[in-house]
Give the backbone structure.
Amino acid sequence: MRSISTTMFVTLDGVVQGFGRPDEDTRGGFTQGGWGARYQDDVLAAEMAKGMAAAGSMLFGRRTWQDFIGVWASATDGNPFTTHMNAARKYVVSSSLPDADAWENSVLLRSVEDVASLDDDLSIVGSAALVRSLHAAGLIDRYTVVIHPVTLGGGARLFDGPAPLTEFELTSSVTTSKGVIVAHYARVAPGGRSDA
């Protein structure tokens, strides 16, 4: 059975916008981009590497896919993340992209329904708008929420609007040397058993 897992980098006040770089996502006048950089350490890198080692394909929203092209598609740094990102099958969900030819091994999907029809195990990094849509459709099976000890007071949040009642079970957690909590959750099926 296909499963969808997502990794979301969030602040204590739930902001997911602009984690990596100051210019990553400035929509709405957001000026706090790059807030996650100072929290990187070996523990967090090891946790993220575990996720990269999992079998399956990657799934992106249009904005994240296009941003990742600029970071990963032409990189030749020998970083294992670079090798993984470029070799993996990548699905991008977009109603506006004409094609997915800009990054090798990419496949264009047009809708959440197209995602639901896939047989691959899928992992999502970022792509908050897509995650919201998939969550609303009951398609997210596991969340890895990487909680950073900072509040920003503004910016796009993981769940900006209504989200359906969905229960999750904490399956494991790790705290890094810089106070980041990496919490792994599995969706609880009706009747109280996790789907993990």
Residues 148 and 180 are 5 Å apart (CA to CA). The chain is about 25% helix and 25% strand. The longest strand covers residues 181-189.
